[in-house]
Amino acid sequence: MRSIGYRNVQMKGDLCARNVKNYARMHDRLYRPGVVGTKEAENVGWPGDWEGRTILALTLLAQSIDSEPAYLEEIVEEILDNCNAGGYRGDLLVPDAINEQQMAGHGWLLRGLVEYYRWKGDGRVRSSIQQIVNNLYLPLAGHFANYPVRQEEREFHQGEAAGSLADKVNEWLLSTDIGCVFISLDGLSQAYEELRDPALGQLLEEMMGVFFTIDFTGITAQTHASLTGMRGVVRMYEVTGQASLLEQALSFFKLYKSEGMTENYANFNLFRTPSWTEPCGIIDSYMLALSLWEHTGNEELLEEAHAIWHNGVERGQRPNGGFGCDTTVEDGHVAIHKNYYEAYWCCTMRGGEGLGVPMRKALFETDDRLQLPLYVDGIYKREQGGREELRVASSYPCEGRIELSVMQGSGSLVHIAMFVPSWALNVKVEKNGAAIPFRLEAGFANFEGELLTGTAFTLTFDIPLMAVPTQGNLYAGSDLHTLRHGLLVLGAARRYEERVNPSALAYAGQGRYTGPDLDLLPLGGAYLLDEATLREQSYQVLFRVGQADD
What we know:
single chain; 550 residues; alpha+beta; Immunoglobulin-like; 14 helices; 20% strand; globular
């Protein structure tokens, strides 16, 4: 099965609003020609980074909302016109002083240029991709064996949200964003998809071989860099079919969940290090979970992706459309990190890619099958089996109701599979208001249906209030719980120190609950608040659970 893709989806509802707000933010001064990649708008010590993330965000957002960016062509031309003699950004490569931040930054530049080339077919851009590979990356062959992958080989330096160079070990200039050189696996793997350059393939094998030996928790690697690197590994699995690559990514994701993920499905910037979340990494974790589900069919991974999106990604978006950092729940609360309200130099731009993912993965199809793993309100035009036009309207995840309507149909008989979370109760499927038989299998309600104009298939289920023990190792044995409306982690706007009796809470709609001295609500609507309120508010998400006299 294949996903329906950008061109055949017209988003509506909340996801559309989020994309539009981020697209507008990406037209502010910091993301315009004459500013991008200059001293006003560059990550110092990260050549190619701001530039690449800007190009990537605008390229993908433009296709998500079907709108031509105001200045993207000029930005691309300006970046390509201002490269060094090697055809890349920053200083020329010095083999005995390799700046891993330059390599990471150009990973994003490669991603941006490849996506732009695929969209526009600009031959100059393709030539630039090849130049960056040839002149910046291929000379690294043989050097990764000297990259420090264990704790005893390097010193720990706690950096800021924008990392900086801290040490030199062997020929490597190391960043406080520990392990960031492996961000470039993402861009290089996508360049390899396009170029199929054997020398690049060999370099990727070398890089992945070293990447898999990293003691991620021992060196407190940056979760964003590690997750991005693993997405590159999964892409190489897709290109080569090498099963061991998928196994490595699955093993890593298990480690990430226990040592790098917060209790509200965001991330620690560094493994095992309470500090701040980073929406770049949250988006990476969402994309990785979805990819791993696609390749394994494991419904737990799909459910994990849903939880990451609605608790982590959505919480990270700000009222101006950008993305910023929160605290990491080490005190049981979620709040804006006082220093990083918006990470405009990285996370805002990564939002441009992340916000387009659900629409690309919301419907998969063959001639006679439809699968809906995500619920994105919108209109979908099928490419296979007919020229049907379908509409999805959903109140999920606050309410368990998803309607799939045939706006234009050919009458073809298809097998339909719609995602059902493991905690869903009283699951039902109806056709035009009448119950029809279905079977639950691998996280989906499966049934047969004819795609006749005017037909509506409706999936409904009840959503329980659940008390879930803490998941990560930070709180192991603490007797603390999150309270959840289905997958939605709920927060209290004021501190509550008593034990919570879930049976004493009454459902108030839209995922909210009320009870004696306690009001709980989902956290994903942060982008609808005003900035002052958002900065000031702290939400308790960890509670002791039981009868008051326990």
